[in-house]
Structure formats: C-alpha cells, structure tokens
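To assess whether ligand presence alters the predicted conformation, the chain was also submitted together with 3,4-dihydroxyphenylalanine. Input:
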Amino acid sequence: MKEKIEFLKDEINNLVVATAEELEAMRIKYLSKKGEITALFTDFKNVPNDDKRSVGQLLNELKDLAQQRYNILKESFSSKGKTDTDLDLTRTADPISVGTRHPLSIVKSEIIDIFSRIGFVVAEGPEIEDDWNVFGALNFPPEHPARDMQDTFFIEKSPDVLLRTHTSSVQTRTMTKHQPPIRVLCPGRVYRNEAISYRAHCFFHQVEGLYIDKNVSFADLKQVLLYFAKEMFGADTHIRLRPSYFPFTEPSAEMDISCNLCGGQGCPFCKYTGWVEILGCGMVDTNVLKNCGIDPEIYSGYAFGLGVERITNLKFQAKDLRMFSENDVRFLEQFRTI
Ligand code: DAH
C-alpha cells in the first residue's frame, strides 16, 4: 500500500488542470466516494497491525495533499475564469475627472504670457493695504471720493487699514523698493464696496502694468497696448485711445478695442458703437515717481490697468459676473478643453 500511496502523491503533485471538466475529473478520481483515496481507506483494514500506524499517517497525508491541491487549482482556475469571461481588457479605461481651470485663471495666465514675451515680470502685493500705498502715494488728494466708505472697505480707521481697491498699489510698493529699469505686471484681486449684480461685484481681478526707464514715451505705451490687443483678441483688432483722468497718470487715457463680436460693425454688446473699453492707462505722474523715491528728471514711465473679468467676458461672453464666483460646475466645466 505504501508504494501505491507514494505513486498517487507524485501523480497529484504533477497534475495539470486546464478546464473546469478536468478539475471535476480530478475530484472524482481522488476525492469522491468512489475515488482512489477512499478505496485505500477501505483497504486499510487489511494492513498488518504493526504497519497500521505508519501507513495510516501516510494515507492521511495523501488525503490532505489531494484536498489542498484541489482547492488551490479551483481557486486559480476560478480567477483565471474571471479574467477570461468577466473582464474586457481591450476596453478603454474610464475617464479620470481632473477638474478644470477657472476661466479667470485661464485669461490671467494668457495676459501674463503675452506680456512676459516682451520682458514683463510678475510682481505681487498684499490685498490688505494702507492708505499710502493705495491712495496717498498715487497722488489721490485727501478728499478724493475713492477713499469714501461708499467705495472702499475699511478694516480700521486711523491709521487706515483697508482692502485694496486696485492693483495700482503694487506699483507704489515696487517703485519704493526698486530703482528703474522696472517692467512689472501685477495681477491680483481687488475689493470695492459695490452692490452685487450681474454687472458689478464687491471683488474682482485686475492686472496692472508698469514700465519705468529712461526716455519712456507715450508712443511706447501705445505700441505695447496694440501688441497686447492683437495677441489677445486677434490680428485684426484695432485700438483707440481716448483722453481721460486718473490721479496717478498724466496724461491719462482709456483704451477701446474694436468690438470682437461684430468686428466693429456695431452690435448690442458694443452698444452699436463698434468699440469696447478694456483698460485705463497713462504716463506715470511725476508726483508718483517722487513719492516713491524715483527721480522724474532722469526717469519716466507708463502704467496701465485692466479688469480680468472684462477681458474674460469679451473672450467667452459670460453674461453674468456673479458666475465667476459661484463655483457652479455646470459653468466651470465648459472651460474643460481650454
Ligand atoms: N487703477 C485704475 C482702476 O482701478 C486702473 C488704472 C488706470 C491703472 C490707469 C493704471 C492706469 O495703471 O494708468 O480703475
């Protein structure tokens, strides 16, 4: 009997099973009631008493081996079965949702990209500011209405701590810290005490530009703004400058671009004028240069400030400003491919 047991052990160890039928055949052959191992147990009574102990041990080992082999084969076979039948490895993977960039970020980055190609670098400043950086140094007279509580959010009064109302405050900080040549772009969030509606919000975003060097002229400003308009809105875009007033620039101007919706023909968006205003600009006032420690006898420069929401609206025609801060994914997802 010992030889028979050894023979079956070898056989079981070397067994290869490829299909469900072969696995079932193995079970029947070794483990069923009519199987070979059961038959050996039946014969066990004929084993001489002296050998019973050792043969019984071998027989039990054989039975355990057969059962284990069967379990392992069944396990591997059933997971193999799953791969073959339930999983389609050729199917494309489920798309991973990676979110979208905010439209204002997309446009801000594009503005930075356009100006960085002609040497502007990004400068940043704090959103919580003081009166000097936001108004005083920028030549706002003490009684200027912009300082009014109606327009500015004050955190503290005397000394004034307030939320900046424009990114021109970064001009002040940059010029106070660095001597020319200065060529910076200052993107950031600004705050104004406005009632929230589809066309106004109490916070929005601006990008400020500043260039100070020897012999900088209004012609340089105009050329740079024309370059920006064409890069941003297309090569067919025209610009026009209208005289205006800002305390920190002299002369000052506002810039319009030809309406990019109707190509300048006139439409409801441009109120049938063919033009839309996109920024304020001018030559930095000599008082501002002096306030920041720059000698106006040696240096001159230009500045401009534009609203990121305005440019974004022109590019994407979002009709309601509030959509930019509501975080509604139905709105944001529309910018997925950009
Ligand atoms: N700071 C102005 C505003 O908030 C925008 C502006 C106008 C900035 C003219 C400038 C400029 O640098 O030269 O409305």
